[in-house]
Design brief:
By secondary structure, the protein is α/β, with parallel strands linked by helices. It has helices at residues 9-14, 30-35, 51-59, 72-82, 133-142, 156-168, 194-201; strands at residues 41-45, 64-69, 90-94, 109-115, 143-153, 172-178, 207-213. The chain has a seven-stranded mixed sheet with strand order 3-2-1-4-5-7-6, with helices on both faces. β4, α5 (133-142) and β5 (143-153) form a beta-alpha-beta unit. The mean pLDDT is 93.
Length: 215
Amino acid sequence: MRLRNITGSREFIAENEFCIHNPEEMKGVWREEIFHNDHPLYLEIGMGKGEFLHTLATTNPEINYLGIEKYSSVLYRAIEKRQQTDIDNLFFLRFDATYLDTIFGPGEVDRIYLNFSDPWPKDRHAKRRLTSPQFLALYDQVLAKDGIIQFKTDNRDLFDYSVEVVEESERWKIEEITYDLHHSNQLEGNVMTEYERKFTEKGNPICRFVIRRGA
């Protein structure tokens, strides 16, 4: 789901100080050049209007956050919210995550969040799912050795597919998993997204897993 087009959103983003416009030049030097520190770097792919990242960045000033979103009208809303805060550990990219390895060096990202990603339900579009083998291979290139990936969705078909992909992989293992997050013992510390709040209010169970590389 995405917002209707907002006139002028591309121009607004192109001129905004909180959106990185030369990400290829930051490969390997995000901490030094953008955040000016050596803190961990956490990434959300498909961040929508940014509520999740804003909450995390506000409560965890010792962590650097980057949000990737390819739809201008959605990113526009996240930047609007960012302009109302005085935090210095949150920036955004208007970018297609398919090319993640062109903007991050090996092991440069410490954590990846995938929240309520587009399920791409047709089989012919499976490789576009952010939990597909193709994307897991990309994450493997940029994620730190002890890094983790956290995935949340209300789409059971997408979740089952994602679990199967991980279980069939020789590279990844599931560290935590639940098919009903809000009625589980894994809820402590959970930060809700806008969609998560909406789906939970409707009574939809939220699925979540955390994965990392196997030994």
